[in-house]
Amino acid sequence: MRDWFKQGEHWVWFSAATVSISFVLVIGLVLLIAVRGLVHFWPHSVYEIELKNDQGKLETLVGEIHDTQTKPIVDPQDPDMAVRKVPQWLVKVGNRDVYGTDFRWINTDNIVGQEDRLARDITVLERYEWGNVYGQLTKLTRDGEILAEGDNVKNVLEDLVSTGQTLHDKINTIERVDIGGINYRIEQLRLEEKRLRAENAFDDEARQAIEAERAELNKQFRDYQEKLAILRDQANGLGDVHLNLAGGHAIQVPIKHIVRMWQPNNMSNADKVGFFFSSIGHFLTGEPREANTEGGVFPAIVGTVTMVMLMAIFVTPMGVIAAVYMSEYAREGTLLRLVRISINNLAGVPSIVFGIFGLGFFVYIIGGSIDDLFYSYAQPSPTFGTPGLLWASLTMALLTLPVVIVSTQEGLSRIPSSLREGGLALGATKSETIMKIVLPMSMPAIMTGLILAVARAAGEVAPLMLVGVVKLAPELPVDLNAPFVHLDRKFMHLGFHIYDVGFQSPNVEASQPLVYATSLLLILIIVSLNLGAITIRNKLREKYKALDN
Predict the structure, then answer these.
(1) Cα 488 to chain center, whole Å?
(2) Most-buried pick from 2, 158, 447, 479 (CB within 10 A)?
(3) Over the stretch 284-328, which tens digit does the pLDDT of each residue have?
(4) Where does residue 12 rank: exposed (0-12), middle (13-18), buried (19+ CB within 10 A)?
(5) How far apart, in whole angstroms, are the C-alpha atoms of residue 20 and residue 512?
(6) Is the Cβ–Cβ distance between 453 and 315 less than 8 Å?
(7) Chain-centroid distance, C-alpha 396
(8) Orientation angle between helical segments 204-236 and 152-173, nearest 10 degrees
(9) Would you call 306 helix, strand, or coil by DSSP?
């Protein structure tokens, strides 16, 4: 045993055990996030619960059981005042416009009768506002006339909800894409007119050209408004659905306000699987609603991916050029050692410091100077002198720059000097040797640094809060309007979306599943980006393996 310790074998086993424990913890964390996030999309059974309220009266609740916990309670009638643990249920009762809240905690001691009794023929309606409705369908009406009653309501309502969803998508497309594009072009015309006036170049010819284009855009705007009016009349003409709620309440819901409907207690397993994937599709392609506690995260996906791509475009050349200069051109000395120490120390600087630097230097100094030089006619409204996509990408590029530099330097140091000498001996210049031999063989190490940079940039939140990320962005940073990628726009980010939903949401219970679902999505996006970079790195490694040997 003493020889075993002297040989250092125990450190090998200790390292292996530590790596194994870390691996298990990471896998366990990902599985926890996956289970908590994916269960949000599964159609939950709806129960009918009878219980006694605080006044001793019977009360009926209908809803989904979302969570359970045990609460210690002291029974005042017990002479020993013993403490016993009573299970509590978190029930999603929905109908927020009627009850005033989506969720309610109940003590199982107050339940009367069967605890797990499924509600019969209960229908769930997901609305654009006010959350879900849990109730029993009674009738469909349109302008006071009854369209369907009894058993026919469900089939007719499904068709009407599908029609209403189609109309909503058409209205949303016209408002955001068509009319949004017209408004963008009108705003560009206004700024162009201001620029010409500031340069004293707004003559009759320019005025006529701008007025003609503005008149054409206004005509297109009126045409789209007429189409919107027709579509909205069609949506208003779909009618209303009437439901009976628990506790003797009744509610009337306009069909145009319904996202979708389902009867979870009557679903087969195949129906539930189809609903599960449909819910994931709504989550990935939809837009946030109800203070980000409902709906989808499509704007946050676009913002995150766009910012990471721009960051990679900025940080890769900066990091590679700096590493090549320090490794191939700079002379060893005190100054170079100080620079390397500074780069290593930058990796440990808190990210919020980079955010403050980005706000002060990029936004106020660089952005303000750009506005003064090129966009003075648009002031006092800032163009680049305000947080936006460009400054967020540059800030994250600075944040991840040390990782790329160090990784590239490690790759350059592994290239044998004989290859450099061989290139020079064949008549190539030093720059040609570096570009043709050294850098291509260092690409796997460069890609490793880029992988680490992408992983860190995609998950950072604190600096982005200062340089461009917002709770809800009215416009996407990427659209069909030239120049297609709008560097001056604010954007949504999955990391900040998680923070906002988890810590700033007015509806904590409703936001918890979305936190896990969005976290899982962020992990999958980071893994996807890294897998793409790893694939490229492995191909490059195979390509230059022969030379490396």
Answers:
(1) 20
(2) 447
(3) 988 888 878 888 899 999 999 999 999 999 999 999 999 998 888
(4) exposed
(5) 30
(6) yes
(7) 17
(8) 180
(9) helix
**pLDDT tens for each residue of 479-532:** 888 888 999 999 999 989 888 888 877 777 777 888 889 999 988 888 888 888
Token reading at 8: 């250092």
Count, residues in the chain: 549
Helix residue spans in 244-333 (DSSP H):
269-285, 298-324
Gap between the Cα atoms of 323 and 314, Å rounded = 15
How large is the greatest C-alpha to C-alpha distance in the chain, in angstroms? 100
Report which residue type is found at 402.
Answer: P
Instruction: State how far the Cα of 319 lies from the Cα of 409, in Å rounded to an integer.
Output: 9
**The one-letter amino acid at 535:** T
Can you spell out the DSSP letters for 8-49? THHHHHHHHHHHHHHHHHHHHHHHHHHHHHHGGGS----EEE
Backbone angles phi, psi at 106, to 5 degrees: -130, 145
**CA 154, CA 135: separation in Å to the nearest integer?**
12
β-strand pairing of 103-107 with 123-127: unpaired
Own/partner long-range contacts of 182-188 (Cβ < 8 Å, ≥24 apart): 182/217, 182/220, 182/221, 182/224, 184/481, 185/213, 185/217, 185/481, 186/214, 186/217, 186/218, 186/221
- What are the φ/ψ torsions at residue 107 (nearest 5 degrees)? -85, 135
DSSP states of 214-238: HHHHHHHHHHHHHHHHHHHHHHHTT
Q: Are 383 and 488 in contact (CB under 8 A)?
A: yes
Sequence-separated (6 or more) residues with CB below 8 Å from residue 545 = none
